[in-house]
Amino acid sequence: FKIRKECSKQELLRILSSASENQLFDIIISGGGMVGTAMACSLGLDPNLAGKKILLLEAGHKKEMDGVPETYSTRVSSISPGSATLLSLGAWDHIANMRCKPYNKMQVWDACSDALITFDKDNLQDEMAYIVENDVIVAALTKQLQTLSDHVKVQYRTKVVKYTWPRPYHVSESIPWVQVTLANGKTLQTKLLIGADGPNSMVRREAGIPTVKWNYDQSAVVAVLHLSEPTVNNVAWQRFLQTGPIAMLPLSDTESSLVWSTSHQHAEELLQLNEESFVDAINSAFWSNENHSEMVETAGSLFRTTLSVLMPDSGSARQLPPSVAGIGPKSRVMFPLGMGHATEYIRHRVAIIGDAAHRVHPLAGQGANLGFGDVAYLTKVLSQAAFNGKDLGKSMQHLLEFETERQRHNLPMMAAIDLMKRLYSTNAAPMVLLRTFGLQATNALPPLKEQIMAYASK
Amino acid sequence: MYSKKLARLAFGLLAESTFKCPLTRSVSSVRTLCSWTVCLHHRQKNPLSEGLTRLNVRTVSQTTLDPAEVRKFQAMASKWWDLQGEFAALHSMNDLRVPFIRDNLLNVHGILQLGKPLAGLRILDVGCGGGVLSEPLGRLGADVRGIDPVEDSVRTAELHSSYDPDLWERVRYQACTLEELAEEELEGFHAVVASEVVEHLADLDAFASCCQQVLKPGGSLFITTINKTNLSYVFGIVAAEQLLRIVPSGTHDWEKFISPEDLERLLESFGFYVEAIRGMMYNPLTGAWSWQQSTAINYALHAIKRKEEPQPGQVWAESENLDEPGRATNYS
């Protein structure tokens, strides 16, 4: 009889909670951008998470691409080999079928001196990284998600208005899960909430996670460039100007993508220019030497001579990027730049990934890669937790492991990018000399360059 | 050591003639009739005479239940799920015992379903307490029955698992003793788990016998417990209870600890084959457990119930312990 009494109490509890049974998910991902969709794919493909109920919430509409459009879109990302490996769990095939451009070499040089550094794999045969349009990445991931629709659900055009956090300890009568209230009034519950909702993350804000952030007084102007003549376009170019770095990333043999970070005022001026003047501005930014000061030039060439004596094989000849003839129609856009880092990536039943956790300057092309790195590691950690039968959101031990590991990887990268940005934002002679010597010295040390490339490729 | 065996022999003969056994319903052979009345004796360190007196008092117990232990855990029943509380070390022990159970069961049964590696297996968690171990096993897909004599603990366990629909179907709790369950569930389980339990029992033989009854042939028995050594006294009692307060004072009684050799011998006498014994160690600084070579303090044991019912005469031909002719006559 005792046994029967236990059963009926369980039944009662079951009835009481059955109303919300359909809406209790194991994982909800808030934000369906590149990183959020990649997270949903990655979780859906993991064998240890088979059978878990996963939901992706995206405020925008579904981004599908039956075939690639004629024109390139302006927002692109440099995808490192490490990220490509993550995406290769299915989505990379779609990307390769649509459009992507591998590049083998990168040349970075200063406007105030002759210093330059080139990165390339040994024989220029291997690809260093890939330039892929953001829309293509999202469309490929969306296509992959459709094959996982039995346990990964997606809700588009869904805006979240409120998050309600559970208490970390058990209080009777209170719901121990995270509650997500949507704009249409419905409330969903989840055991783990993953915030992938961008640099102004609502998840991060509502969870009260302190963030270190500042705005760079810079905006980035992006555009699609038509080159003057077709060329073997497999080099990425970046020049540090007085106002900020200008980068040309290959899209095809005839087109490249422009990312020009400059002051807000200059960015607005650039947008106002007519096409011809804009193209002239770009070409002169890459080609002109008017900012070279004599002292720096002399010092620079002396240093270079010394290095070439010490290490005869090092040093590279400076090449010039292809000249630009025109720009894609209606393709000039600008957006502000800033730096942000969440001091914690996790809370009880919450984790944040991608730009929600860390936002960087585009000068190193690492923003998306850091996000994909978060996706890969969080999936690994959750997979292990599930294989040990743990409650995914409550297992602080596993979430802490994710946070520690990713912060250890992300913080040095972010610090380096911020340092580079500050170092190259000034015209003061000592700084220019310092960076000239630094750049030339780094260029002369292949092992150091290999380390840098390896770190950025993860 | 030989005095204990002699005593066992003497009382074995005595018990057979004088005591009626309540376990007559059990399937197993005559050896269980006398073993539960006699065998507690092998854990006494005192000389024979004192042991005699003690034995007279103990033989009244017909169950694994020790009322003093029940009272101890009753007082702590609400604290099971406080991750920083008294049971914190048990929560972190899941990192060792869940993979131990999971991997050994997978070795035997193979992966039946991705995402639910233990699907289709019925597991009995003896002394489940607040369900600390039952829940992860349930999440891995097993059909778990958790039993504990302390009703409040069972209530806490039920409440905690009631929120998670994943666990409703798979984890069920019952406030009863192993003997009571053994009456209903003969050969019903693929695995029995008794983690941090045997050091709290009154009668190990009854326990082993009941485990043998409820397990399917070829089923697994998982035990984690504490060794009876000087080291375990220093670390398990003095350090853990009195100095560092990892567990509340009085939780463990060193007299009730059992060495892996003794446990192995006991289990083999009940038709189990001990497949693995591994040492475990708790690091109080990190709060984490790890596997180690030495079984001097904590250890985990995996035994498998032999498939055929061994005949009394056959037991000793199979066993490795051929240096104890004295025991054989117990079972004639």
Automatic annotation (TrEMBL), chain A:
Q: What cofactor does its activity depend on? A: FAD
- Recorded topology in the membrane: Peripheral membrane protein
> Protein name, please?
Ubiquinone biosynthesis monooxygenase COQ6, mitochondrial
**What function does this protein fulfil?**
FAD-dependent monooxygenase required for two non-consecutive steps during ubiquinone biosynthesis. Required for the C5-ring hydroxylation during ubiquinone biosynthesis by catalyzing the hydroxylation of 4-hydroxy-3-(all-trans-polyprenyl)benzoic acid to 3,4-dihydroxy-5-(all-trans-polyprenyl)benzoic acid. Also acts downstream of coq4, for the C1-hydroxylation during ubiquinone biosynthesis by catalyzing the hydroxylation of 2-methoxy-6-(all-trans-polyprenyl)phenol to 2-methoxy-6-(all-trans-polyprenyl)benzene-1,4-diol.
Q: Name one GO molecular function term.
A: oxidoreductase activity, acting on paired donors, with incorporation or reduction of molecular oxygen, reduced flavin or flavoprotein as one donor, and incorporation of one atom of oxygen
Which residue range or ranges hold the FAD-binding domain? 184-295, 341-385
> What pathway, per the record?
Cofactor biosynthesis; ubiquinone biosynthesis
One Gene Ontology term, aspect cellular component: Golgi apparatus
Query: What gene name is listed for this protein?
Result: LOC107559892
Tell me, in one coarse class, where this protein mainly resides: mitochondrion
Note the subunit structure.
Answer: Component of a multi-subunit COQ enzyme complex, composed of at least COQ3, COQ4, COQ5, COQ6, COQ7 and COQ9. Interacts with COQ8B and COQ7.
Q: Name the Pfam families on file.
A: FAD_binding_3
- What organism does the UniProt record list as the source? Sinocyclocheilus grahami
Alphabetically list the UniProt keywords.
Cell projection, FAD, Flavoprotein, Golgi apparatus, Membrane, Mitochondrion, Mitochondrion inner membrane, Monooxygenase, Oxidoreductase, Transit peptide, Ubiquinone biosynthesis
Q: Which family does it belong to?
A: Belongs to the UbiH/COQ6 family.
The record's annotation in InterPro entries points to:
FAD-bd (IPR002938), FAD/NAD-bd_sf (IPR036188), Ubi_Hdrlase_CS (IPR018168), UbiH/COQ6 (IPR010971), UbiH/COQ6_monooxygenase (IPR051205), UbQ_mOase_COQ6 (IPR000689)
Q: What is its EC number?
A: 1.14.15.45, 1.14.15.46
The answer on whether this UniProt entry bears the keyword Membrane reads: yes
TrEMBL record, chain B:
EC code: 2.1.1.64, 2.1.1.-, 2.1.1.114
One biological process term from GO is:
methylation
Q: Record's superkingdom?
A: Eukaryota
Query: What molecular functions are annotated in GO for this chain?
Result: 3-demethylubiquinol 3-O-methyltransferase activity; metal ion binding; polyprenyldihydroxybenzoate methyltransferase activity
Task: Name the segments for region: Disordered.
Answer: 311-332
Q: What chemistry does it catalyse, as a reaction equation?
A: a 3-demethylubiquinone + S-adenosyl-L-methionine = a ubiquinone + S-adenosyl-L-homocysteine; a 3-demethylubiquinol + S-adenosyl-L-methionine = a ubiquinol + S-adenosyl-L-homocysteine + H(+); a 3,4-dihydroxy-5-(all-trans-polyprenyl)benzoate + S-adenosyl-L-methionine = a 4-hydroxy-3-methoxy-5-(all-trans-polyprenyl)benzoate + S-adenosyl-L-homocysteine + H(+)
Pathway in which this enzyme or protein is active? Cofactor biosynthesis; ubiquinone biosynthesis
GO cellular component terms, alphabetically, are:
extrinsic component of mitochondrial inner membrane
Q: Its membrane topology, per UniProt?
A: Peripheral membrane protein
Residues annotated as binding Mg(2+) are 196, 199-200
The record's subcellular locations are: Mitochondrion inner membrane
CDD domains the UniProt entry points to: AdoMet_MTases
Q: Which InterPro entries match?
A: SAM-dependent_MTases_sf (IPR029063), UbiG_MeTrfase (IPR010233)
Which SUPFAM superfamilies does this UniProt record tie to the protein? S-adenosyl-L-methionine-dependent methyltransferases
Which cofactor(s) does the record list?
A: Mg(2+)
Q: Where does the chain bind S-adenosyl-L-methionine? A: 97, 127, 148, 195
Q: Which UniProt keywords apply?
A: Magnesium, Membrane, Metal-binding, Methyltransferase, Mitochondrion, Mitochondrion inner membrane, S-adenosyl-L-methionine, Transferase, Ubiquinone biosynthesis
State its role.
Answer: O-methyltransferase required for two non-consecutive steps during ubiquinone biosynthesis. Catalyzes the 2 O-methylation of 3,4-dihydroxy-5-(all-trans-polyprenyl)benzoic acid into 4-hydroxy-3-methoxy-5-(all-trans-polyprenyl)benzoic acid. Also catalyzes the last step of ubiquinone biosynthesis by mediating methylation of 3-demethylubiquinone into ubiquinone. Also able to mediate the methylation of 3-demethylubiquinol into ubiquinol.
Family to which this protein belongs:
Belongs to the class I-like SAM-binding methyltransferase superfamily. UbiG/COQ3 family.
Q: How does it assemble?
A: Component of a multi-subunit COQ enzyme complex, composed of at least COQ3, COQ4, COQ5, COQ6, COQ7 and COQ9.
HAMAP family per record: UbiG (MF_00472)
Q: What is this protein called?
A: Ubiquinone biosynthesis O-methyltransferase, mitochondrial
Native organism: Sinocyclocheilus grahami (Dianchi golden-line fish)
- The gene for this chain is coq3
